């Protein structure tokens, strides 16, 4: 009669034990690291969604266009509110923002998507953008002009270091959901991050000047464009990207961000 010690030393015994250990380690991993909500760390029932239903419901959703200068809720088809004509030229786009960056859940999720590479958050952001578009009443007229969805690009070096462009992930998912064409019509020529450098918009704009280029002019000419970014703070990035697209012949631009700071 074999004892347990003998069984663990024969070949079959070892493979059984390996398999057993594998099963145990999987089970232990699930116990030690169960799928958790990306914000509140509650256990997730639906493992495909990175946020729990409670957190998703808690995010304050916007329902109107927003003034890029003062964050006022805006009527349809106005780029800025009452800041005068000279300012209007600096903001050659309608601005839509699905949420506010002050929302702690949004802030944490954007940080996780960008720096901790939680890519599964991109479809969550895309859904917020679609819900926002659906909530706009009246809808911006340019939405009926067969717009192209375009992400704000990263500089090639930054994208290589990070491994991905979070705005492109969000834009692609948004375009797929809303069934609009997606095209990376902009490239970034200068590796500058205005957010981290200075708080003054004028200095940010100066740093951004000439940051973008349109390699395929024919793809942009007379087109309506939905420009996607994760966050807008001073609007310097969106202004420069929109200015570049306008110079390349784009007709109208709707800048759509997950969160406005
Ligand atoms: Zn949660
Ligand atoms: Zn305003």
UniProtKB/TrEMBL annotation:
Transmembrane segments: none annotated. InterPro entries: ComF/GntX_DNA_util-trans, DZR_2, PRTase-like, PRTase_dom. CDD domains: PRTases_typeI. PANTHER family: DNA UTILIZATION PROTEIN YHGH (PTHR47505:SF1). Residues 28-82 form the Double zinc ribbon domain. Belongs to the ComF/GntX family. This is Phosphoribosyltransferase domain-containing protein. Residues 167-259 form the Phosphoribosyltransferase domain. Gene3D superfamilies: 3.40.50.2020.
């Amino acid at each position: 009669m074999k004892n347990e010690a003998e069984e663990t030393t024969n070949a079959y015994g070892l493979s059984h034990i390996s398999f057993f250990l594998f099963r145990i380690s999987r089970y232990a991993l699930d116990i030690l690291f169960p799928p958790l909500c990306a914000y509140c760390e509650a256990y997730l029932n639906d493992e495909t969604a990175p946020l729990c239903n409670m957190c998703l419901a808690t995010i304050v959703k916007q329902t109107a266009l927003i003034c890029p200068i003062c964050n006022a809720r805006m009527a349809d088809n106005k780029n800025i509110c009452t800041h005068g004509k000279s300012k209007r030229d600096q903001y050659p786009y309608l601005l839509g923002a699905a949420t506010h960056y002050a929302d702690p859940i949004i802030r944490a999720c954007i940080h996780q998507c960008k720096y901790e590479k939680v890519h599964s958050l991109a479809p969550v952001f895309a859904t917020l953008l679609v819900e926002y578009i659906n909530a706009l009443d009246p809808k911006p007229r340019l939405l009926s002009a067969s717009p192209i969805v375009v992400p704000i690009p990263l500089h090639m070096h930054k994208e290589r270091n990070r491994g991905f462009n979070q705005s492109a992930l969000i834009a692609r998912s948004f375009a797929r959901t809303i069934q609009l064409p997606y095209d990376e019509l902009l490239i970034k020529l200068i590796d500058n991050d205005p957010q981290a450098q200075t708080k003054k918009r004028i200095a940010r704009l100066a740093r951004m000047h000439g940051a973008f280029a349109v390699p395929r002019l024919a793809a942009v000419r007379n087109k309506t464009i939905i420009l996607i970014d994760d966050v807008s703070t001073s609007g310097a990035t969106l202004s420069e990207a929109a200015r570049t697209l306008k110079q390349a012949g784009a007709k109208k631009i709707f800048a759509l961000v997950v969160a406005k700071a």
